[in-house]
Amino acid sequence: MEKLNRMCADCLKLGKECEGTNCQTWTGCVYRVTILDEMKRQAAEINRQKAEAIKTGKNQITYNDHKGQAHTLYYIGGRWVDNGTRQRINRQFPHAVEYGRAAQ
């Protein structure tokens, strides 16, 4: 078997949607997606969701990372935080009101 082209080694599609190429002179692939490319795409989508949530008065968003694991971010005190940080804030400031959520 011929050696796999180096550009295929870190492609997320290798072994799933594509078998790669053995051609060593081929220097570009329009279908290639690296972890960095995927993370940039996801970051842009998360930022879009954050902006939309703030416009509509929501205080949380949920997204899936590149591995398919679900995550939730909460908007507290003018910034987005994960659940662990949210719990620490709630323990320290039990009477704080989260953005978009009325006191009960």
UniProtKB/TrEMBL annotation:
It comes from the Bacteria. This is Uncharacterized protein. It comes from Pusillibacter faecalis.
